[in-house]
Amino acid sequence: MDAIHIHGGNALFGETKIQGSKNAALPVMAAALLIKDVCTIENCPHISDVLHMQQLLQQLGCTVSHEENTLVIDARNLSMDTMSGENVTGMRSSITLLGAVLGRCREVTMAYPGGCVIGQRPIDIHLSALRKMGVAIYEKEGCFTARVKSLEGAVINLPISSVGATENVILAAVMARGVTVLQNAAKEPEIATLCEFLREAGAVIEGIGGSVLIIQGGHELHGVSFRVPADRIVAGTYLMSVIGAGGNVFLEDAPASQMRGMLKIADEIGAQIHISREGLHVIADEHKRALPYVKTEIYPGFPTDMQSPLMAALTTAQGISVIEETIFEDRFRVAAQLRKMGAGIELSGKRQAVIIGVDSLLGCEVTAEELRGGAALVIAGCMALGETIVKNRHFIERGYEDICRDYRNLGVDIRIG
Questions:
Q1: pLDDT at residue 285 greater than cutoff 90
Q2: DSSP letters of 14-54?
Q3: N or C, where is the chain less crowded by C-beta within 10 Å?
Q4: C-alpha to C-alpha distance for 86 and 263, rounded to whole angstroms
Q5: Residue 81 above 70 pLDDT?
C-alpha cells in the first residue's frame, strides 16, 4: 500500500544520518549535461525526484548509473533534445534542464513542468531571463519550444529572487559568449553548490553566495567528482519532530551553517541546540512555547519548505502561534489533515494560519497532498496517541530517501503498509 503507519505518542531518542540534499543534487545533475565528459556525484540521495531526473538525462542520451549513493553521468553523446511525458510534468525540477539543454543543444521542446500543488509557480521569470540572452520562446498547447542560435551574455535583474530562474540563468550563462551579470540572484545554499560544481568543472563564476553573480561564459568544462552536501530541509524535518514529540536526538551531518532560520525558531520554542562538526544535537523542552508570529522568507530566513513541519510541531505548543506564508499562496493544505488529528488550526485566507495549542493529537487516517505536508503528517503521527496512517506515501518519497528507516533509528514505531 502507498501508506505509512505510525504508532506515536513517545519521545524520540537516538541518532540518524542526514541524506544528501535533493535541492542541490537536481541542479548539479542538470549541470552535468553541459560537460562532454564523465561526472561522479557522491552523496546523491535515493529519492524519486532523482530517479525522474536520471530518466530525463537518459532520455536525452546520457549514460547514467546509480550505485548506493554515487551517481555517474556520462553526457558525451547527447542524442535527443525533446523532453515530455510523466518525467517532466511530474517534477518541478525538470525546468532546470531548460538552461542546460539550451547551453548544450541550442534548442529544446518541453512540457510545462509539474510538481507539488502548493500554489502558482509561473515560469515566466525563467523565460524572460533567457530571452535576454537571445533565446526565442514558442509556446504551444501544453508545451513550449526554446531556441537560440548563440547564447549571449547579458545583464539580468530578476524581479524576484527565484531559485529556479537563478539556476537556469547560471546554466545557460556558462555556455554563453561574453559575461552575464545576474542581479537579485537567489542566495540559497543550493545555488552556491551548483556554482561550486561548475567552477570545479572549469567555469568562471564570481560572487558565489551573494545576490550578484558574474559569470564568464565560453570556458571549456571537464568532468569532475563532486560531493553533494547534506539536506538542510530533511535535517529541519527531524529537528521539528524532536521539538514536537520531545526527546534527545543527534542528527549526524546536519548542515547547521545552512539552518540559521530554523535554529532561531527552535531556540524560541525552547529547544536546546548543540552544534558540532559532526552534526546537530537537539534536546526538546517538555513545555514547548508557542510562537506569537513567524513568517517564511527567502534564505537565510525561515524556509517555506519548513512551514508545514513547523505547523505540526506547534499543534501542541503552549499558547497561540501565528504563521504567515509569504512564498506560496496555497501551502496550508496540511491544516485540514492536522485538524482531523485534533489540532486547533484556523486559517485567515491563504497566507496566515493561527495554531491554538492542544494537549495532544490523536492518531487517525490522513492523506498527504504534497511533499513537505506529507512529512508534516509523519511528524504529527510521531506526536499523536495511537496509530496514524499517512496515505500517499509517494509524495514523501520525492524528497526523503527512507523516512521510515530514519525514524526507526530514533525509536519510532513506523512501517510501510
A1: yes
A2: EEEEPPBPHHHHHHHHHHHTT-SSEEEEES----HHHHHHH
A3: N
A4: 37
A5: no
Q: Which of 227, 261, 278 is the last residue of a domain?
A: 227
Rounded-to-integer distance, Cα 9 and Cα 182, Å: 49
* Domain residue limits at 166: 22-227
All three cell numbers of 37, joined, read 565528459
Query: Cβ neighbours of residue 42 under 8 Å, at least 6 residues apart?
Result: 69, 70, 225, 226, 227, 228
Annotated catalytic residue 116? yes
What Cα–Cα distance (Å) separates residue 355 from each residue in 74, 143, 294? 49, 41, 12
The C-alpha cell 559568449 sits at: 177
Q: Calculate the alpha carbon distances from 22 to 15, 225, 237, 327 in Å.
A: 21, 18, 14, 19
Neighbouring C-beta atoms of residue 159, cutoff 10 Å: 11
Closest CA to 41 of 28, 50, 51: 28
Which range in 94-103, 175-184, 327-336 is most confidently predicted, on average pLDDT?
175-184
Among 332, 346, 336, 393, smallest CA distance to 368 is for 393
Cell 541546540 appears where? Answer: 273
Q: Is 138 exposed, middle or buried (0-12, 13-18, 19+ CB in 10 A)?
A: exposed
324-366 pLDDT tens trace: 999 977 789 999 999 999 999 999 988 999 999 999 999 999 9
Do 71 and 128 lie in a common domain?
Answer: yes
Strand pairing report for 70-74 and 12-17 = unpaired
- With a pLDDT cut of 90, the percent of the chain lying above it is 82
Number of structural domains (the chain) is 2
Choosing from 62, 116, 195, 382, the catalytic residue is 116
The answer to whether the CB of 97 falls within 8 A of the CB of 81 is no
Distances (CA, A) of 220 to 21, 61, 90, 223: 27, 20, 33, 10
